[in-house]
Each structure stands twice: as C-alpha cells, then as structure tokens.
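[Automated response] Your request has been received and processed.

Submitted sequence:
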Amino acid sequence: MNNLNLKDSKQKIWLKLLMALCYGILSAMAINIFLSHANSYSSGLLGVSQLIQALFLQAGIHVSMSLLVALLNIPLFVFAWYEFGFSYILFSVLAVGFNIIFLKFIPEIALVHDQLTNTVVGAGLLGIGIGLCFNQGFTTGGSDIIVTYCQKKLHKKVGILNSLVNGSILVVSVICFGPSRLVYSMIGMLVTSLMMDHTFVLQEDVSVTIYTKKTELIAAQLRTFGHGATLLHGTGVYTNQPTDVILVCTPKAQLNELRKLIHTVDPDSFISISRSDVEFGTYRHYSL
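Generated structure:
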C-alpha cells in the first residue's frame, strides 16, 4: 500500500510539473504570437503587465514583459504562501517561471493579421493554460491567486471572478488610450473566462450517496475528510437487511480522495454520484 501511495504521489508531482510547463508555453504563445498583434490586453496579471508596458512605452521607456510579470507576482506569492502553503506556492512559482522563460525565448511573430482571430486564439490558449493548472490544485500566479482565494471562500466560479478583476484593466486602458482597444480586450477576456470554466472541471460540486453495511468504518474515515456527512438508516427492500445511507457533498476535485477512503474499508459499498449546486451555508462543514 505504501509503494502504491508513493507511486501515486510521484505521478501527481510529474503531472503538476507538466501542467506548469504547458501553461508557460501556452501563455507565452498567447502573448507573443497572438495578443501582442491584436492591440488588446489579456486577462489577469499578464494584462496588467501589458498595460504597464504600454504606459512606459508612451514615455519612451521599454520594460521587459518578463520582468514586469516577475516583479508583480512577488507580493501575491507572499500572500499565497501564507494562505495556501508551500506546495501551492511551489508549483505556482514554477508556472510563472516557465511563463517568464518562454516569454523571453518565443519570438513575437504574427501567424495571422486579423485582430479578432488573434484575440480569440490568444485568449483561448491563455484560458486553457490557466484551467489546466487550476485542475491540479495550483494557480498561475497573479490575479489567479486572488481568484482562487475567493473561489475557496465564497464558492464562486473562477471565470466570473476573473472577469470582475479584469474590469479594472479595461477602465485604465480606456482612460489612458481611449476606447480603441476596449472591444477586443473585452472579447479576449470573455473567451479566457469561458475557457477557464470549461477546462477547470474540478470546481464543480457533486453529491455522493453511499450505501453500506460498514457504517462505523466509513464514518471514521469521513471524519478525516473535511466535509460534513449525514447518516440515514435504511432497510433493503428485497433482502430486508439493514443498509445505511451516507450523504456527502464535495468539490469534484476531492472525489477521488473520497472514493479511496470508502473503498479502503468497504469495497462492496454502492456509490452514486450526481452533480450538485450549493446554494448557501457553510460549505466546508456542509451537512445534508
């Protein structure tokens, strides 16, 4: 069992590294190949960096995008380390690091010259990269740290929260450069948000119904799970034997962990899973 757990842990680490690398490549491609030729701003901290770079260029000063991304991430990583822990920071730093590296080495070439195409493709690549990282339990730095914090505390979809954060970028761009860049920036941010929500499937909630005859063993495991559960005493219609029903609501991201907890003590249990929308209540200790 220990060897299996160690193997599973190594696979998760390699998968997180791969997703951080994918984000670095996708986001750098989105900026250098597409969005920089669309006269629009991307979402989150990358958009803030683009905006600051444009403001410096107006003053005749060229500042590297990779440098701006690095500097702006420092205070947010300090906050994230305090709030989410070292493991969260580690992979987020790697994601940002890969992004900075590929921003330097991927050339700013134009594959297409249509502004709308550049905006949609670039924003889509960026949203996919962010969503892949979110699925592995870490963010891509920048405003995603704030969005993740709000998603965990307020239980709102990250795409919607990200749109609210990006509103400030649009306001500043209109004030400084006029409305010419507004439309494409809004389209790009919307596409990024949609792709984030589409890719980040693990933010959805599920209701899990467990039918078991080993109630006490499963209940002992669930006390370490971090979410509330409700026990109902039932009777099998055909067997007339006592069969207890345990109800749990959990994010989809934690579903595999819950399956393992149950299967460890009762491999014969019957589990039913359905999509769930949490309306209100203290979610972490939610009890049906």
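Summary generated for your ticket: The longest helix spans residues 2-34. Residues 2-201 form one domain.
If you did not submit this request, please reply to this message.
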